[in-house]
Design brief:
With 220 residues, the chain is mainly alpha-helical. It is built from ten helices and no strands. Helix 1 (3-19) packs across helix 4 and helix 6 (108-121) packs antiparallel against helix 10. Keywords: DNA-binding, Transcription, Transcription regulation.
Length: 220
């Protein structure tokens, strides 16, 4: 792995998430890792290429280990937005697979664990779209659809668990589902990248805290 490319990736990720794509300049990325602007342009043709590199590494973590010709150009990312849209669909279908037969053997704790893992795995891509939706309308539209389906899937799972007696009765199912998702989202996504106060809480501990509290609140 090229350590400078890794440093550019990490710095650009935080800057794009915290101050937006439009508000981030190449000089900001260079300053964050202590190199010249020219050094950044040696590795990447421009800001758009860095942004696409960030998104590509989100959906393919091993991508950074490839050997790249410098500067990296957008020829490598000609279909990245369609790849992300397809990933949303595959992820949603996989998440909903236990609904086909009313989730036999699938537990409430399995649901919360799986939901946390999905949100953590794609945190950078999801947060990037949320923070930059007006600059990237194609991704934003697919992401909004994905979020609606994710909420619907969680609601359907909770309905099954309420009906089989493993989750307590919920007076406001959709609002409760939204609350659970928002808790998971903050601990799996925002806490790591965009919260006002940075935190060094390990991801495993963040997941444990979520599961302990959500299960205690809703499991019968």
């Amino acid at each position: 792995m090229d350590t400078r490319i890794q440093s550019i990736l990490e710095a650009a990720t935080l800057l794009f998430l915290r101050q937006g794509y439009a508000g981030t300049q190449i000089s900001h990325i260079a300053g964050a890792i202590g190199v010249s602007v020219g050094t950044i342009y040696h590795d990447f043709a421009g800001k758009k290429e860095i942004m696409h590199f960030v998104l590509k590494c989100t959906i393919d973590p091993d991508f950074i280990n490839k050997d790249f010709e410098r500067p990296i150009t957008d020829n490598l990312f000609s279909d990245v937005e369609n790849e992300i849209a397809s990933l949303f669909e595959r992820s949603q279908n996989d998440f909903a697979k236990h609904l086909e037969d009313d989730a036999p053997g699938y537990r409430f704790e399995d649901l919360i664990s799986d939901a946390f893992d999905i949100l953590a795995r794609y945190a950078v891509g999801c947060l990037f779209i949320e923070k930059n939706q007006f600059e990237f309308p194609f991704l934003a539209e697919h992401y909004k659809t994905y979020r609606r389906k994710f909420l619907d899937t969680m609601s359907r799972y909770l309905t099954i668990f309420v009906n089989n007696g493993t989750v307590r009765t919920l007076d406001h199912l959709k609002l409760t589902t939204t609350l659970i998702i928002e808790i998971l989202t903050w601990w799996a996504m925002d806490r790591r990248y965009t919260s006002f106060e940075t935190s060094d809480i390990p991801l495993e501990l963040a997941k444990k805290i979520c599961m302990d509290n959500i299960l205690s609140a809703y499991k019968r």
